Amino acid sequence: DAKTTQPTSMDCAEGRAANLPCNHSTISGNEYVYWYRQIHSQGPQYIIHGLKNNETNEMASLIITEDRKSSTLILPHATLRDTAVYYCIVRVGGSNYQLIWGAGTKLIIKP
Amino acid sequence: EPEVTQTPSHQVTQMGQEVILRCVPISNHLYFYWYRQILGQKVEFLVSFYNNEISEKSEIFDDQFSVERPDGSNFTLKIRSTKLEDSAMYFCASTRISSGETQYFGPGTRLLVL
User: Fold this and answer.
1) Is the pLDDT of residue B97 over 90?
2) Distance from chain centroid for Cα A59
């Protein structure tokens, strides 16, 4: 089973920051938090990942709490094209790892 | 930017027929994966592959499934005798050799078994 819990759905106004929470209270010290998204039934798209520190790239920011039991994905200026299902995944395994997917959060960006 | 490609994008087959789904991973990647997603359900891990052998497989990946890297670029998933419940999106993913590398996914093949 997935090691994460996420809200089923969220709305966000276009142009505003979208903050997607994720709980992973049983995460181990060497397990990464990954975020992917899936638009319609397209292939999952990698967004960002982190271990302990906050991370930022051209798509998003990832804020991980100090106890690592939860994290937040931030899309700083959401557009209509960001409407998708967002998956928070704790990576299980070593170099050859599998991703265990939950149901994700359906994010709807409204004009 | 390099990306994983998959063919065909759609495949319709009759129950009991064999299908081969093809993937071209990113060129310098050495770990390969297949996942599937039944309509409206979660993405599920099927199998991982490295150094020309299966590294790990799920309970879904039974004797009807096989994977192969027939040449230096392609990675295939074969379903020997398709069942109605094999209808799903099948996604290929790949990573580089280093541990902790991100899995990058292809666009998927939509398989419909009639």
Assistant:
1) no
2) 12
- Cβ of A100 within 8 Å of Cβ of B48? The answer is no
Query: What is the tens place of the pLDDT at every residue in B6-17?
Result: 999 999 999 999
| Tokens 């027939």, located at residue | B70
Mean pLDDT over A62-89 rounds to 96
> How many CB atoms are located within 10 Å of the residue B17 CB?
12
Averaged pLDDT for residues A34-53 = 92
Q: Is A74 on the interface with B (CB under 8 A)?
A: no
DSSP string, A52-85: SS-EE-SS-EEEE-TTSSEEEEEETT--GGG-EE
> Residue A101 is which amino acid?
W
| Mean pLDDT of the residues in chain A | 91
Which SS3 state, helix, strand or coil, does residue A90 take? strand
| Cβ neighbours of residue B65 closer than 8 Å, sequence gap 6 or more | B46, B47, B77, B78, B79, B80
A96 vs B: CB within 8 A: yes
Look at residue B44 in the predicted model and tell me its pLDDT.
Answer: 93
Instruction: Give the amino acid at A36.
Output: Y
